[in-house]
């Protein structure tokens, strides 16, 4: 972290004093930057002039004050500074400005893949700022870290990472098609891996004073969340596949329909919770004992195990979602109805946790209600100091206050349509 710098964001949170320059679009890398910005990092999001981040054009849209804005951008573009610049270092003016930003920053993040074509090279950036952390986020990884070069050069989306990693093969009904986990699950998982990588590298910089490169491949980030899928195969030869919403090895564990039409998630893993479920449902524990009904695949598939499943289905169908939740809460068995966005916004627990916050969207000028900052910190909490910026909203401030550009230098960049 460099001191004695002028920052354009208010000081708050544990990451105050950290400056990030990010280039790219859509979800995985930009969302990682949002997570950092929510806790005080100054994030300068470089966007193409007159084009902007592709996320700005992602449906659904809201019309506010006669202006249209992507609701995804409203949620995830917040707390950032928007700088428009044609980021191609063949233009000497751009190269000068970009290198100055790198010199004044701690972290450079990108998910553009084609950096070489733009003249952006890791070794040159590290010469400009030897303490810089460089973060690459891509579908298949940077070839400098290994892999098949042709794969590393492939395009990717959230869905592709889910498919290539093997994750998608685990989701869906056993006799049905694979299911794409929504929304953008692989992108958000990759963002979490990115933030972890940043702070692993940041700890190294604090110890050694030497910057380094962080490489995040979407498929690898997703594969890390697959638990025993690979060891199951290497140790037993079994390929884990889709099992649907219910567990084949213990019960009850899955989705059940309530009398009032809700799907309810209800789970009892292990003998202790199982016994509490049987008590809460009013079933005979001696008859529906754990060993015979829930101690493994054979028990669940047995005649008595299947009888218990039918009785559980019937028990849920005879009660409202609220009655099911209350009965299970009484005996400490995990249970929740499957909420919609409307349900969440009206839910007392969400409300009392202050999960939803209001801020002003910079594109439309309207106030929005959005999901707030997670996790909660007692001493250095995060916050939203500003809504998602309009395109290029902060370009001049960045040039004047951070890079100390005068009117003449800014005019040259404008005349050449580089900002």
From TrEMBL:
Pfam families: CoA_transf_3. The lineage of its organism: Bacteria, Bacillati, Bacillota, Bacilli, Lactobacillales. InterPro entries: CoA-transferase_III, CoA-Trfase_fam_III, CoA-Trfase_III_dom3_sf, CoA-Trfase_III_dom_1_sf. GO terms for molecular function: transferase activity. The keyword Transcription does not apply. This is Bile acid-CoA hydrolase. Keywords: Transferase. It comes from the Bacteria. Belongs to the CoA-transferase III family. It comes from Enterococcus pallens ATCC BAA-351.
């Amino acid at each position: 972290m460099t001191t004695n710098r002028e920052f354009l964001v208010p000081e708050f949170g544990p990451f105050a004093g950290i400056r990030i320059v990010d280039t790219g679009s859509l979800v995985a890398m930009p969302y990682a930057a949002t997570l950092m910005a929510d806790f005080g990092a100054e994030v300068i999001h470089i966007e193409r002039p007159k084009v902007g981040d592709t996320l700005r054009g992602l449906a659904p849209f809201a019309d506010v004050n006669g202006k249209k804005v992507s609701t995804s951008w409203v949620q995830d573009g917040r707390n950032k500074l928007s700088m428009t610049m044609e980021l191609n270092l063949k233009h000497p003016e751009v190269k000068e400005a970009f290198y100055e930003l790198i010199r004044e920053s701690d972290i450079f993040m990108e998910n553009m893949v084609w950096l070489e074509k733009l003249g952006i090279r890791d070794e040159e950036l590290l010469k400009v700022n030897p303490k810089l952390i460089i973060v690459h986020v891509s579908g298949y990884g940077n070839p400098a870290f290994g892999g098949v070069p042709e794969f590393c050069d492939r395009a990717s989306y959230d869905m592709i990472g889910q498919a290539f990693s093997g994750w998608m093969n685990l989701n869906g009904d056993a006799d049905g098609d694979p299911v794409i986990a929504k929304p953008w699950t692989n992108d958000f998982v990759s963002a979490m891996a990115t933030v972890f990588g940043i702070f692993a590298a940041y700890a190294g910089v604090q110890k050694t004073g030497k910057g380094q490169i962080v490489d995040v491949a979407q498929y690898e980030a997703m594969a890390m969340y697959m638990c025993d899928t690979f060891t199951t195969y290497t140790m037993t030869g079994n390929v884990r596949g889709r099992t649907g919403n219910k567990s084949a090895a213990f019960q009850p564990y899955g989705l059940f329909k309530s009398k009032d039409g809700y799907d309810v998630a209800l789970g009892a893993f292990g003998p202790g919770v199982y016994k509490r479920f049987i008590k809460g449902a009013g079933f005979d524990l001696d008859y529906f004992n754990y060993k015979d009904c829930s101690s493994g695949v054979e028990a669940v598939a047995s005649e008595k195990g299947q009888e218990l499943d039918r009785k559980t289905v019937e028990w849920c169908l005879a009660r409202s979602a609220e009655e099911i939740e209350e009965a299970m809460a009484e005996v400490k068995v995990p249970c929740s109805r499957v909420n919609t966005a409307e349900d969440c916004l009206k839910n007392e627990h969400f409300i009392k946790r202050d999960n939803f916050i209001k801020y002003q969207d910079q594109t439309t000028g309207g106030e929005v209600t959005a999901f707030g900052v997670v996790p909660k910190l007692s001493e250095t909490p995060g916050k939203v100091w500003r809504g998602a910026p309009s395109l290029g909203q902060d370009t001049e401030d960045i040039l004047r206050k951070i890079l100390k550009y005068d009117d003449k230098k800014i005019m040259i960049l404008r005349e050449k349509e580089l900002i």
